[in-house]
Amino acid sequence: MLDVTLFCTNSEEGCEILCQILPNLRRISHIVLDTFGSSFSIFNSILEHPIVSTVLFRKYSDLPLGPLPKSLSKIMLEEIMAVFEPQEDPELVSPPFFSNLDECPNRGMKAARLQLLRPHLLDNVHVRKIDGLREVILYMGLLPVSFSWLPTFTAAHPHLEKIEFHDDNKIYFSRRTPFFLSSFVEECRRQDLDKHFCVKHIVLGRTPDSSSNVHEWRVTAMTIVSTFRSTLLIELLSIIASSFSAIRTFNLDFHGHRGSHRIEDLIMAFSRFFDLRYLYLDN
After folding, report:
1. Contact 228, 258 (CB under 8 A)
2. Backbone dihedral region for residue 248 (phi beyond 0: left; psi -120 to 50: alpha; all else: beta)
3. What is the DSSP letter of 194?
4. pTM (whole model) above 0.85
5. What is the CATH number of domain 193-283?
6. How far is Cα 16 from Cα 5, in angstroms, rounded to an integer?
7. CA distance 34 to 8
8. Among candidate residues 124, 115, 137, 142, the one with its CA nearest the CA of residue 87
9. Could you give the CA distance from residue 254 to residue 84 in angstroms, rounded to a whole number?
10. Looking at the record's lineage, which domain of life comes first (predicted)?
């Protein structure tokens, strides 16, 4: 891999040097270009290198200005953002607009991460397949999301590893219960715990089923903001451990917490998280 981001892509002399040395790099397969800022001819010479298989950019706007080549199969973006534009008629939604990437996926461009704004509009549109996709991030708003599109989307992206849901305003998951939280929320309500915490962040990961070779989607990370009195926190942790056995990362935000706990009780509670690898306690 050759990272030319700093030493040559932002100067004319550096770009000429890169153009001269490329033919002699007979084993180079990946080139990292962050902010390119060079002539389009040099960009084309990189794409036409017979050995280079991947040219990595951080985002779409880092590509050089000008008409892109017909084939974009060598270009990999670290991330793209999908913006869904509502129309005057609420029943009509424009197709996904991938930061000027409407045609790029059809021409072979790959992307590792997709960020989705206004995910409630996904219920009414078709999201095209994006080669190379491994991660999706959804920023939840106020409006409900049915997730009817999710099974088709995950089936179309076999290399997808995780789907993140961010509820930074701590509103969406307080008012809505998606299918992957339903049994957990139901048990919390049964024990009258649901009003004492909120879910801020969820990650669904593709994990292997122990009884088969099939990979299932399960909750693998969670951030909880606690407003508990002392004893209720231990009860909540017990429900989380039994509801989400595949959790590897857990973040507990104590900012609204009242009360104290014996260290022995906390150790016992977290010992039930059998797959836990990372524990964050934010106070």
Report:
1. yes
2. alpha
3. G
4. no
5. 3.30.750
6. 14
7. 11
8. 124
9. 35
10. Eukaryota
| C-alpha to C-alpha distance for 5 and 141, rounded to whole angstroms | 36
CB 234 within 8 A of CB 265: yes
E strand or H helix at 150: helix 150-156
What is the C-alpha to C-alpha distance for residues 261 and 46, in angstroms, rounded to an integer? Answer: 60
pLDDT tens digits for range 93-132: 444 444 444 556 777 888 899 888 888 877 766 667 888 9
Q: 């078709």: which residue's tokens?
A: 126
Domains of the chain: which residue ranges? 1-67, 193-283
pLDDT digits (tens, 9 = 90+) for 39-67: 676 777 778 877 788 888 888 777 777 77
DSSP classification of residue 121: G
Of 31-35, 154-158, 215-219, 238-242, the range with the lowest mean pLDDT is 31-35
- Look up residue 93 and give its DSSP letter: B
- Supply angle C-alpha 25, 26, 31, rounded to 5: 55
Q: How many CA atoms are closer than 13 Å to the CA of 258, on its beta-carbon side?
A: 4
